UniProtKB/TrEMBL annotation:
Keyword match Disulfide bond: no
Pfam family, one: Abhydrolase_1
Domain AB hydrolase-1: 44-155
Single Gene Ontology MF annotation: hydrolase activity
Gene3D superfamilies named among the record's database cross-references: alpha/beta hydrolase (3.40.50.1820)
Protein name in UniProt: Alpha/beta hydrolase family protein
């Protein structure tokens, strides 16, 4: 697979597409730049939903020009990476956070590196990156989390030996919140619950307006281009508080995601003015998701609500991220506040060497596409401060 056969001519000329075989059971599709010169420090970029390695295309050359070997994989379940089972009834274990952490570790090793100089995770890539730094700080000696704050791993109850045993089940909180959202007027449903349903893949894959138009509206409404995004902290994870978020986060019950974003379809003039995601670039997303659908990408949302797969994360109960870390959001991105309290927990407890929380003006959720130059400056400044540029060893 070469640049000429991926991206329909939209990739920057210095970025190539290729496959890495036998990585934790996967054949991983990556985009990379800076590969020509041996010995460069490795920058690993992990995307979220419904993104691809392609979402980093504007940032990859910036980091390569600064001296890095930059690698962005299609994560398990996404794009051209293969080796996972595509189906709603496929076992969830392979999509667990810890296995996707192993995917990242295996990729670093397959590329011939002992450690990364830069690890960046966006959206769902953020918790994957967080567990990389939590579990293997020797391999991932710094971490940048984008759009999704990390509140820390689930913890065992502390100092409760003399108390009465609790009858509360781990999933009871989610069930109670779902019931409370459904009881609102009008009834609402959290987008993660909707995306966990059996019909979500077909809804997204075959929307009434067509896949390309749906993706255009989805990218638009979650960006700084949509004036309705005015995020602010929420007081608590209650139905009333969460219902303040736009309907693409807390949906009207009974509506699909394509129906939810359809009223926000940008005009032809707005599409033409969108330089961070041109029509040919959006066409790459349309082609990739049109070919495979969304089920593999949606499995992560089902993992979040699986008690057994959350239980295995308690291996890290009480453990903190002790490598230098940075959080980056967009001033128009609700992701920073979508989990009430997570930002404060990350800052105060979960990450002991946090260098800051940066919110980029003119960026919504798609920071690396909307404001790649500003993002690149922040990443390079952070790594210089953290000493990560010295971690070049293979």
């Amino acid at each position: 697979m070469t640049t000429s056969t991926y991206g329909a001519g939209t990739l920057p000329k210095e970025v190539r597409s290729r496959m890495i075989h036998g990585v934790n059971g996967l054949d991983v599709h990556i985009l990379e730049a800076g590969y020509e010169s041996p010995g460069r420090p490795l920058a690993l970029l992990l995307h979220g939903f419904p993104d691809l390695a392609y979402g980093w295309r504007h940032l990859i050359p910036i980091l390569a020009d600064a001296g890095y070997h930059v690698v962005a994989p299609d994560q398990r379940g996404f794009g051209r990476t293969t080796g996972w089972v595509n189906g709603y009834d496929a076992p969830l274990e392979s999509f667990s956070l810890l296995n996707m952490t192993r995917d990242a570790l295996g990729l670093v090793s397959a590329l011939g590196y002992r450690r990364t100089a830069m690890l960046v995770g966006h959206d769902f890539g953020s918790p994957v990156a967080a567990y990389c730094a939590l579990a293997r700080p020797d391999v991932f000696p710094s971490v940048v989390l984008m759009s999704a704050p990390f509140p820390g791993p689930p913890a065992f109850p502390f100092n409760v030996a003399e108390g009465e045993p609790s009858s509360v089940q781990p999933s009871a909180g989610n069930q109670g919140l779902a019931a409370a959202l459904a009881a609102l007027d009008p009834p609402r449903v959290h987008y993660q619950q909707y995306l966990s349903t059996r019909q979500a893949n077909d809804d997204l894959w075959h929307p009434p307006q067509g896949l390309h138009a749906f993706l255009r509206a989805f990218f638009h409404v979650k960006s700084a281009d949509w004036p309705g995004n005015k995020p602010h902290p929420l007081k608590a994870p209650t139905a009333i508080e969460l219902a303040q978020m736009p309907t693409y986060y807390v949906m009207d019950l009974g509506k699909t995601m394509s129906q939810t974003v359809a009223p926000f379809q940008p005009s032809a003039a707005e599409v033409s003015a969108c330089k961070w995601l041109t029509e040919p670039e959006l066409g790459v997303y349309t082609e990739e998701y049109g070919r495979m659908g969304f089920q593999g990408a949606l499995m992560a949302y089902r993992v979040f609500s699986d008690p057994a797969l959350n239980a295995e994360l308690r291996l890290f109960s009480g453990k903190t991220i002790d490598v230098p870390s940075l959080f980056i959001g967009g001033t128009s991105d609700w992701g920073t506040y979508a989990a009430p309290g997570a930002l404060d927990l990350m800052r105060a407890k979960a990450a002991t060497r946090m260098r800051g929380i940066e919110l980029i003006e003119g960026a919504g959720h798609w920071i690396q596409q909307e404001q790649p130059d500003r993002l690149g400056m922040l990443l390079l400044g952070f790594i210089k401060d953290a000493g990560g540029a010295d971690h070049a060893s293979r």
